[in-house]
Amino acid sequence: MKKFKITFNSPVTLGFIFICFAVLVLNIVTMGMTNQMLFMTYHSSWASPLTYLRLFTHVLGHSGWQHFIGNATYILLLGPMLEEKYTSKKVVMVILITALVTGLVNNILFPNTALCGASGVVFAFILMTSFTGFRQGEIPLTFILVTIVFIGQQVYEGIFLQDDISNLTHILGGIVGAAVGYKLNKQK
Questions:
Q1: What is the pTM of this model?
Q2: How far apart are CA 1 and CA 16, in angstroms?
Q3: How far apart, in whole angstroms, are the C-alpha atoms of residue 73 and residue 119?
Q4: Which of 30, 123, 129, 167 has the highest CB neighbour number within 10 Å of its CB?
């Protein structure tokens, strides 16, 4: 009988989720202080080095278990496929670009709103995944449908629902994922 072993198949995806988990536990232990100090972006002085750090680290913080589990599920589902297709280095690049874009837009356009969580990364992964079967001169129907369903939902919810979810972050993450997915597949 052949033995099975557990493999660390997607280092960026797994590393990202383990870091998010540790940050969530730390935030619970500190009763929210670590998120506010390091893992949440909000309008603050551009003279503070922490402002620039939080532009990237806000994707690691989550408001609670449900928020974390929702994002982690999608990232664990999509991340390994993206790492296999595009390389771990490119997946790190997508995470960093998404964090920076969503952090900057939130700080500039919504100075009274704090932002934390990996939802933008999730949407970047979703739209990027729809490009995995892309060929030059073609637009995948899956991309069109995913865009309509996910981005359409965010536009609808952003207009008609009043909740604490940053729909613009989801849309921006989707745009980053679509742009990177298109560019990477066009180069091949």
A1: 0.88
A2: 34
A3: 11
A4: 123
CA angle 66, 180, 14 (to 5 degrees): 40
DSSP tag of 40: -
User: Do the domain assignments include residue 94?
Assistant: yes
> Residue 147's domain spans which residues?
11-187
Give the CATH number for residue 99.
1.20.1540.10
Q: What is the pLDDT of residues 40-88, one digit of tens each?
A: 999 899 999 999 999 999 999 999 999 999 999 999 999 999 999 999 9
User: Of the candidates 121, 149, 133, 119, which has an alpha carbon nearest to the alpha carbon of residue 182?
Assistant: 133
Residue type at position 169: T
Number of structural domains, the chain? 1
Q: How many helices, marked H, and strands, marked E, lie in the chain? A: 9, 0
| Residue 76 forms part of a structural domain | yes
Q: What percent of the chain has pLDDT over 70?
A: 93
* Strand (E) or helix (H) holding 16: helix 11-29
**Does a structural domain hold residue 6?**
no
Q: Using one digit for the tens of pLDDT, what is the confidence trace for 125-155?
A: 988 888 777 666 677 787 788 778 877 887 7
User: Cα–Cα distance between 17 and 118 in angstroms, integer?
Assistant: 10
Cα distance between residue 160 and residue 30, in whole Å? 35
